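Entry for the shared binder. Reason: the reviewer on the internal report wants the predicted structure included alongside the sequence.
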Amino acid sequence: MPIRIPDQLPAQNVLLGENIFTMDMDRAASQEIRPLEVGILNLMPNKIETEVQLLRLLSNTPLQINVDFIRIDNQAPKHTPQSHMDAFYHDFSSIANKKYDGLIVTGAPLAMLDYEEVKYWDTMTTILEWAQRHVNSTLYLCWAAHAAMYHFYGVTRKLRENKFSGVFSHRVNDPNNELLRGFDPVFYAPHSRYGHIDTSLYNKADGLQVVAESDDVGAYIVASHDKRMVFVTGHPEYDPDTLKDEYFRDLQSGQQPAIPKNYFTNDDPTQSPIVQWRSHGSLLFTNWLNYYVYQTTPYDLNQLAEKPQPKR
């Protein structure tokens, strides 16, 4: 798959080692097609790890994709070198006049803060509104999904005492929805969150449909009828060891985290994780790119229509 990413981006060597096709700038420029323009607003502290995870999921399509990494502020990331941010990330102000076929907004480790307490919440709401005018389809992951629901629909998450952590079974509610094309009726996906929005609240929101959910963790994939917004409450992008790393990180910090459910062999943290979500994660991103982005976006992005404001 020809993902066009900046030269020297660390993710490039990782992806090449996994036999994933990436394209340098010179080769991409020689192709006489209009590539998809996809922005990634990366809110995770370990930017490089998240870059690899998302680029891997964008790889399973014949479409050429130009990727812009976007930063929400100039604060030095906790787990990413400042030199990396300066080399590969765009300040929002520098791309504010650009239009995108697709935008991915990642989760963030902000579970215990009210939205208005988040230091960049004002900028976040500006970007959410900007996406309504400048992006054909936006994919919100985990914290970002809840934040967008709060901003657009006034739906407030509840914080659970015990974290949803593990790999959970989900069912397809609407097998005819193109996002779920090729999905098994029952599939698995990782979750790692304290926040929760009851499925009934998604169902009451104007223009939204819960297309996949779980008896254990509730709504998983929620899509707008016009395909302009997708809310994913879990982490289809997670690597095999991500939940393991989170679990042992919390242990080492003095917390008493529950063992992630349905994840370690025999539920034993000393044994290997059981990986059973990556094929559906890849398929979800492929379907989003094809049916919610490529098949609906105008050839001339200047013709992109502004999305009407959701009705609360």
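Summary line for the report: The first strand starts at residue 3 and ends at 4.
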